[in-house]
UniProtKB/TrEMBL annotation:
Keywords: Disulfide bond, Glycoprotein, Repeat, Signal, Sushi. Residues 92-158, 159-216, 217-274, 275-334, 407-464, 465-524 form the Sushi domain. PROSITE patterns: SUSHI. Residues 1-16 form the signal peptide. This is Protein lev-9. Disulfide bonds join C187-C214, C245-C272, C305-C332, C467-C510, C495-C522. It holds the Pfam family Sushi. Residues 29-59, 79-99 are annotated as: Disordered. CDD domains: CCP. It comes from the Eukaryota.
Amino acid sequence: MRLLLITATLSIILQGFLVRSDTEQYNYADNGPDNLDEDENAESNSTVVEEPDLTGSDSEKDVEIVANTTVQTVLENTSQAEKKNDATLGPNECEEPPSIDNAVITSKIQLSYEVGAKVSYKCEFGYITDGAVPSSHCIKPETTQAPYWTKPELSCVPRSCGDPGFVDNAKRVGSVFTFPNKVSYECDEGYKLKGYGSRYCHASGRWSGVLPTCERVYCDPPSHPDNGRVIYSSLVFESELRYECNPGYILRNFLGRSCIGNGTWSGEEPVCQDTQCAQPAAPEFGFAQVVGGKTSVGTRVIYTCEPGRILKGSPTSKCLDTGDWTFPTPKCLYPCSVPNVNHGKMFKHTGYRNHYREILIGSKVEEKDDLILRCDDKYEVAGKSNKEEKIFCSGGEWSSIPECHPAQCRRPPPPTANANIGSVNQTHGGGVVYLCKTYFYKVKFGNVLCDFGTWKGETPVCKDFRCSRDNLPFQGLVQPRKRFYQNDEKFNPSCQSGYYLTKENSTLFCMNGTWQGHLPPCTPENCNEDTLQSLC
């Protein structure tokens, strides 16, 4: 308890000096609050320790003297109180007075407190009271209970400085506006702070300093590169620069520059170099000759190829003021010779829509050029059904050399009655094999051949050599049990009642699809001169 009293006393005396030493933002020369949340009645009832005036030249020395004197007095009183505390309290004495957060005892510290004694409190520097009884009394109840202190109703809360305000184009950090807190301001990207970035809530209820401002970031005017100039329309944040070089110079190492948040230009300043084209590379299997030996603007290079090769591309190129050559390096390629294809001709596209011209055998064709082979009438590309084939030159050789063969017969061969197609050879000169169906026999052999894509010839004839019972429409004949009889097959006829066999032991047999034997086989029993002609 005594150590707390010493600390509290020192806090009252040294509060202003210590706080001011912590930051130059604190200014205690103004002791009166100018932005308090409490009303006048609350202010008049509160007990606030006035801030010491530290504005004089000897302020720190004065504080030191006051502090030393107070500490000495407190220590002496504390020493006496400790001696007194060693003895047992009397029946009419209270223990040490109660302590209150953020408050100090203003009464003189005594060696002992008898019944009826009173101590007064007031809030520490920077705190105000919202209570009505800033004191405590030592009382003794009528019972035998020991004396005790009444409970003080004092409550000390930090003094409020109110809302410190916002700053345009900035965010505010901190939301507690009471002593001894602070708020800070951070400018948005592209803005810079002018003034102090933090404000402190003083014990007097005032904010330190004034609101800062956030000003737009500007970059300094950029310098012009040698042999060129810089172009811009603004120097404000995020503005961009553009560079141009004088004629005969080319811009190098330019990746873009803009004004950034710290007020500087991003990247490095580009340079304008004297324009020269890179030394041209000779084509493979060829040569590159620079006219004049230098690769400055306007210089020409001439390309040639080794004997036997064809130059593919522009034979000359010129150095431009951009440092580039007008044309890429050409290629030296072997030419291809137009081949001789029997029954076909080679054609090359003229560049006009669907227009081709014939290329003579042995003509030279450049690398990657293509030709169209067209086969003669009644001929087609070997292995394919089309009459045309595209080929192209690569490395002095053709991608392929197709042939023109007689056209194949792509359509099915002609059919014939009572026969199936056994096999087909669709190539020129190939034929068709026909197979008669079951029970049918060839009575005429055909010959169907493929002639330049068309089937020509006669098909075979297949005939049924069986004999049908339907071909025995004779009166009195008992129809045979079987419907068909094979070639050379026989059967013995029998007659119905009222008929007799015209010839004993008569036999009918099938020969090449026709019934042979004595016909009609049956004769009516009443056959006479009158009926013989019609029935017999």
